[in-house]
Amino acid sequence: MLLRGRATPTPRQLAEVGVSVDSLTETTGARFVRAVADRGRYDLVVLACVGGAVQAMLHGMAHATGPNAPGAAGSSGVRRPVVATGYVGVVYEKLADGLLLRHGADLVLANSRYDAERFREVYTGAGADASSVTECALPFLDGEAGRQGADAPAAGPRPFTVVFAAQPSVPVSRADRMYLLRRAAGHARAHPDREVLVKLRSRPGEHTTHIEEQPYQRLAERIPGGLPANCRLVYGHMGEILDRSDLLVTVSSTAALESLHRGVPTAVLTDLGIREVLGNHHFLGSGCLVSWDQLDAGTLPEADPAWTARQGVGPWPEGTGYADAFDPARERVAALAGQERLPPLAPYYTPVTAPGYLPGILGRYGFGPHGEPLATVAETDESGLRRVVRGAVRDAARGAYRHGVQRVAPVIRRMGQL
Predict the structure, then answer these.
(1) CA distances from 337 to 264, 342, 381, 398 (A)
(2) Whose CA is closest to 130, among 110, 103, 95?
(3) Separation CA 1–CA 357 (nearest Å)
(4) pLDDT (tens digit per residue) in 93-123
(5) For residue 388, how far is the Cα from the chain centroid?
(6) Residue 110's beta-bridge partner residues?
(7) Rounded CA separation 129/108 (Å)
(8) Fewer CB within 10 Å, N- or C-terminus of the chain?
(9) pLDDT of 148 strictly over 70
(10) What is the pTM of this model?
(11) Residue 111 — φ and ψ, nearest 5°?
């Protein structure tokens, strides 16, 4: 079920990352809660959303399955699915904010020992229950760690391949993004025997959880003479691209951890400084911090094994493997799902603990201050024709929003700087 909003993935994005499902529907918060709250239909619900959406769904489910809901048994617990959430990559910003918005789930998955320790510190420091934090691993690492780049068997001769993993929101400014693209093109010109791939996450008009106001596709059109022949923009599954990569370059993308896991030399750029706003401060101590000048001169960074181990990146200890990292999560889910009734969902944020913050978050997703669904026209039963018309209007509004984000907003900002 895809939560309707600006970050709703497109069919192309889903296919690119290999999503295969039995059914696919776009839904609202209230409809989602009505569908999943019944324990008779689902044993486990995974909330793969941004923090605010997770908090809203938790409160909505808590209201729908709480002690006063149909089928509840008071102090003996309630019939509800097990609820899990977490992160899909490097957590380098809004640590406390994002974590507390995810509090209340039965499992808050941490992708490494380092993350698990930080998560527990935040919850404990806020006086919140930290027992939900469950250590596992990054969810998209493919198989065991090992050299899969230049040393991997190839179908035939191929050039040394450099991949620049672009990010939708880091850096933000047009000047900084143009600088990075120019340097990638410059690296290609300086090394005509190499292939430079600029790996993009979305096409113009598509969004991820982060808004991309300056798409690299449009910036590439402004480079005098265009990109050199050995430098091109690419899409696709990151794992497949890394299989033929010899060097991964990024500002702070989670792709760096995937690259390190595969044993591919990985460069985290310092050109724009080492700053929290960029997220590359997360890689302090990794041995991967370098500049484009150093890469142009032939530097291949070597990662520090102790740092990668704390980040949940292979190689794994002898006798263990990538799949073993998920055993604690599997065991916790099995233990909870085996219980007839579970404690009511109890997020840290409530109308008592966050009266000036929580209502705004819940309202954004169609819920009242106590998790009750708000009565709106969108939640009422609609005829087929009405659904078609509403869908067309929604798509048009979404297109206008994206146009405003990518074209109008940057112009207004530039005019404000005059």
Answers:
(1) 39, 9, 33, 38
(2) 103
(3) 27
(4) 899 999 999 999 999 999 999 999 999 999 9
(5) 31
(6) 135
(7) 11
(8) C
(9) no
(10) 0.79
(11) -85, 0
23 vs 1, 5, 26, 179, 270, CA distance in Å? 8, 19, 10, 43, 44
Name the amino acid, one letter, at 152. Answer: A
Smallest CA-to-CA distance from 313 within 298, 303, 301 is with 303
* pLDDT confidence tier of residue 21, bands split at 50, 70 and 90: confident
Q: Which two tokens stand for residue 136?
A: 């596992």
User: pLDDT by residue (tens digit) across 278-325?
Assistant: 999 999 999 999 999 999 999 999 999 999 988 988 777 677 778 888
Host H or E run for residue 389: helix 384-403
Secondary structure string (H, E, C) spanning 206-259: CCCCCCCCCCHHHHHCCCCCCCCCCEEEECCCHHHHHCCCCEEEECCCCHHHHH
Q: What is the DSSP letter of 343?
A: P
Task: Give the Cα separation of 137 and 155 in Å (integer).
Answer: 31
- What secondary structure, in 3-state letters, does 51-88 show? HHHHHHHHHHHHHHHCCCCCCCCHHHCECCCEEEEECC
CB 189 within 8 A of CB 296: no
Record the tokens describing residue 402, joined without a space. 């994206």
State both tokens at 215. Answer: 């798409």
Residues forming beta bridges with residue 46, ordered by sequence position: 84
Distances in Å between the Cα of 375 and the Cα atoms of 25, 225, 357 are: 21, 56, 21
The first and second tokens of residue 224, run together, are: 């005098």
- What single letter denotes the amino acid at residue 408? V
